[in-house]
Design a protein that fits this description.
Layout (H helix, E strand, L loop, with lengths): L9 E4 L4 H29 L15 H19 L2 H29 L2 E4 L1
Antiparallel strand pairs: 1-2
């Protein structure tokens, strides 16, 4: 994906000044959601056992490890070597960017200025 005509790959429709407020609110919401998720995981994984019937539960068995191992390998492979997947997605991503750029003038006329990030 390359820049064409001096436009960046990310376009943000800011509207009548409300887009920046919405973006800030969205950012704060994501930060609070992440903090809550970490707090909840800490309580679930490292907190005390609240119900006595859960004390008999065991950790993962060998069979469960064998089921999860291929998933872990795929996650690590995609994290370390994303190139093959990204190359396969590139044509459709470029087509999507082209469609957004074609429709940007109409969106700008309807919703106000567009912030183009390079």
């Amino acid at each position: 994906m390359t820049e064409k005509n001096g436009q960046g790959l990310v376009q943000v429709f800011t509207g009548n000044g409300k887009g920046k407020t919405t973006a800030a609110l969205g950012t704060v919401t994501v930060v609070f959601a992440a903090a809550y998720l970490l707090w909840a995981l800490k309580r679930m994984l490292y907190g005390p056992i609240a119900k006595p019937e859960n004390e008999a539960l065991t950790d993962l068995t060998r069979r469960e490890y064998l089921v999860l191992a291929p998933l872990l390998v795929v996650i690590l492979w995609l994290g370390l070597f994303p190139g093959p997947v990204l190359r396969r997605m590139q044509p459709s991503s470029e087509r999507f960017i082209e469609l957004v750029r074609l429709r940007a003038p109409a969106a700008q006329a309807a919703h106000g200025p567009i912030l183009i990030v390079r």
